[in-house]
Structure formats: structure tokens, C-alpha cells
Write a structure and sequence with these properties.
Length: 419
């Protein structure tokens, strides 16, 4: 015969095997130690015999000095502070703490910090989640989390990519909370057990007509841009076709980034473009979005030297002629031309030529597709575009840009010998 846990406990208490008062004392002691571990500042005894420490001052964001006559009494103050704070800590408070820590430890950059907050507002402040961010995190259950996630997926029609961003945020919040004893939820186990149907996600359907410039469109766009040799924005777009640089990298190029090197035993000189900075978007002290130049590219792999043709060199020289005294290669009326302005220029170019509108990023995909179709080695393509994984480059950047006529021609030629 098996006994329930409750029956075993009742037997142990009734027969003096377990003293409930002793159990309660141990629980209180463990709880006390938990709160003392949360206190990162030193507790010390001064020359006057009094005990001191610093506690965070939530009102000012700084810290305040407290002192008591005994070590026990000052530890009591510390325990009560963190116990009270734990009971009142909301999800939004934990998110803010987590974000500020990552920024302080330089685990993320300011632009990533701002992007996290934008995503947070999207997921936690929408009208469907019933003020979820203002719930006390210590009371949040796994059922609450599952409902929150599935509501976001359904109501916001999240793609798989957006869902992954939401998951990363929730994991970060609850791992931080668990480490600081704000919650008992094991977020790793939670996601291990969570079941989300793939049918729940909004399918992202790419329009193949807008992913790249087709091979019969490219010469038309290039010819149009070359005709606008006195338009510095047109020259910038032309250089993107010739080098595949990101628009943020284009916007921050300097004339001195064009360099040359002699080829050993060939008695010839080759030019290359050094990519070492990019444009970033972040919030200023007033919470307004602003554009700045970051003195390093998007990623470690992004710092690179792009081999350029003589035509690209000519484009750079033309831009420099139009803006010979500018700090950056592409400037207008003394101001650096931002990436968004190149985007608007490209829209007008497409309209003038009479083709589907594309974003500047589609020029970069066109460049990559051209290199792949021309049988350039994978390692060289990876180096030119500044990617760390060539498989990702193939998956997201290599698109067919053949016209319908060329597709039909190639298929018919391939199948010509089949009976």
C-alpha cells in the first residue's frame, strides 16, 4: 500500500519526526539568504562601530547610504528592501533592468538597445495582451506566458522570424528574473514543452518580381544612371550596382576609402574600396530617432576591401568632382546624403524607366546574384559582401533574375535530348 505525500507528512509531524517550527525557521533562513545574495553592495562596519551599506534609490536611479547599530539590523533592512521590491517588480521593470545591464556591459550597442525597445512596445503594449507588461512577474505562470505568446502570434499575425524575436525577448526577461530570484519559472523548460503549430504563423510570400533587378532591366537602369552623371545620388546608386555595398556603407564612404595596390610580378595596379563604417539609426536623449555614422561596419565580417572595376573607379571620381571638398563622398549642400534619400532616388529611377519599384537592398541582392551566376568562388563572394556564412548568402541573396524568355530557353535546351 502506497501513502500520499500528505499522509506521510502528517505521520512525520504527529510522531515528532518533523518539527514544523524548525521547518519554518529553515524556510525563513533560506529566504533571508536569497535576499542577501541579491544585494551586490558591500556591508561594512565603520570606525564608529555602526554598520553601513548602499541601497538603490529607485526615485533618482542612484544609490543611498544607510546605517544601523548592528550587523543583524542592517541586514534586516536589506532583506526587507529586496523582499518588498520583488513583490512589486513588474514585467516592464525586469525588461528595463535586463536591457540596461546588457547596455552597461556592452553586450549590445545603442542601436540594438533602441531596437529591443521598439520590439518590446510592439509585443507588450498592443491592445490584445491585456496590460501584460504591468503584471507582477513573480505571479506569472507558464499558462500566462503561453496565452501571451499565442495571442501575439494570432492577433499580430507574426511570421516565424517575428516569433523568434518575441521568444528571444521573453527568454532574456525570464532568465534575468530567475537569476535575480524574481521568478521560479524555468524559461528553458517552458520553451522546451511549448507547442506552436507551424500553421499559426503568417507566411511571408516574397514577390519574385521585386527581389532583384532582372538581367534585361540592369543595363537600362545602368544606362539611365550614367546619363545622370551630374546627379550625385544617381552616382551613388550606380556605385551600389558596381560594388554591392549596403546603403548605410555607401552613405558614409569617403574619397580616401578608394585605394590601390600593385599586383606582384604583373606590373599593374588594382583598385579596391575599403569598407570601415556605416550609418546607424538610434534614439537621442529626447527619445527622437536620429542618424549617426558608426566608425565600424555592421558586423566584424563587414570590415572588408571590395575589389572594384575601372568603371567603379570612374564613378567614384565623378562623385568626388561634384563634391571635392566634402567630408564624405556623397554629400549635398554640405550634408551627408542618408540611406533613405538614396532609397527615394531609386524609387524615382524605377518610375522613370517604367519598371517595378525596388529598395536599395535589392541592388545588393542583384550584385550577389550576378557574382554567383558568373561562377565567382563562394569564398570571394563572401569576402566581397561581408557575410560570415556563405550558406546564408545563397539562401537569402541568390535569386533568379532571368527573364521569362531566358528561363524558357534554358529549360528547353536542358530537356532537348529527352525523348
Amino acid at each position: 500500500m502506497e501513502y500520499s505525500n500528505q499522509e506521510l507528512l502528517n505521520f512525520a509531524v504527529q510522531n515528532g519526526i518533523i518539527d514544523l517550527n524548525d521547518v519554518q525557521d529553515k524556510i525563513r533562513m533560506n529566504e533571508r539568504q536569497k535576499y542577501l545574495k541579491m544585494h551586490e553592495n558591500e556591508i561594512w562596519q565603520g570606525k564608529d562601530g555602526k554598520w553601513r551599506t548602499y541601497l538603490p534609490d529607485r526615485a533618482t536611479g542612484k544609490r543611498k547610504l544607510i546605517k544601523r547599530t548592528t550587523e543583524k539590523s542592517i541586514k534586516n533592512v536589506v532583506v526587507e528592501f529586496y523582499k518588498s521590491e520583488e513583490q512589486e517588480l513588474l514585467i516592464k521593470d525586469v525588461f528595463e533592468k535586463w536591457m540596461n545591464q546588457k547596455l552597461d556591459y556592452r553586450e549590445i550597442k545603442k542601436q540594438s538597445y533602441d531596437r529591443y525597445w521598439t520590439d518590446y512596445n510592439r509585443f507588450f503594449k498592443n491592445r490584445y495582451v491585456d496590460n501584460f507588461e504591468n503584471q507582477k512577474i513573480c505571479y506569472i505562470t507558464e499558462n500566462d506566458l503561453e496565452d501571451f505568446i499565442k495571442t501575439n502570434i494570432c492577433k499580430l499575425q507574426l511570421t516565424k522570424k517575428s516569433y523568434n524575436g518575441l521568444c528571444s525577448m521573453i527568454k532574456g526577461i525570464f532568465k534575468y528574473a530567475k537569476k535575480h530570484h524574481y521568478t521560479d519559472v524555468s524559461i528553458t523548460n517552458f520553451f522546451g514543452d511549448l507547442e506552436i503549430s507551424k500553421n499559426s504563423f503568417k507566411e511571408k510570400i516574397e514577390d519574385p518580381e521585386r527581389e532583384v533587378f532582372f538581367e534585361d532591366e540592369i543595363p537600362r537602369v545602368i544606362a539611365y544612371l550614367k546619363l545622370k552623371h551630374d546627379d550625385i545620388r544617381a552616382l551613388g546608386l550606380l556605385l551600389m550596382f558596381q560594388t554591392g555595398v549596403r546603403v548605410g556603407e555607401l552613405s558614409t564612404l569617403k574619397y580616401e576609402d578608394l585605394r590601390c595596390k600593385e599586383i606582384a610580378n604583373k606590373d599593374i595596379v588594382k583598385h579596391y574600396l575599403s569598407i570601415s563604417r556605416t550609418e546607424i539609426k538610434l534614439k537621442d536623449e529626447d527619445g527622437k530617432w536620429t542618424l549617426k555614422v558608426q566608425e565600424h561596419p555592421k558586423s566584424a565580417a563587414g570590415r572588408r576591401d571590395i575589389i572594384v572595376t575601372q568603371e567603379a573607379v570612374d564613378t567614384i571620381e565623378q562623385a568626388h568632382t561634384l563634391n571635392s571638398s566634402g567630408k564624405y563622398l556623397f554629400m549635398d549642400k554640405g550634408n551627408r546624403i542618408s540611406g533613405s534619400k538614396f532609397g527615394r532616388k531609386l524609387t524615382r529611377v524605377c518610375d522613370d524607366i517604367g519598371i517595378d519599384e525596388r529598395t536599395t537592398h535589392k541592388i545588393r541582392k542583384t550584385y550577389v546574384t550576378t557574382l554567383f551566376d558568373s561562377k565567382v568562388d563562394d569564398s570571394i563572394i563572401q569576402e566581397m559582401v561581408g557575410h560570415s556564412d556563405i550558406a546564408t548568402t545563397r539562401r537569402y541573396y541568390y535569386k533568379s533574375n532571368k527573364s521569362d524568355e531566358r528561363k524558357i530557353e534554358q529549360i528547353e535546351r536542358a530537356l532537348a535530348n529527352i525523348d
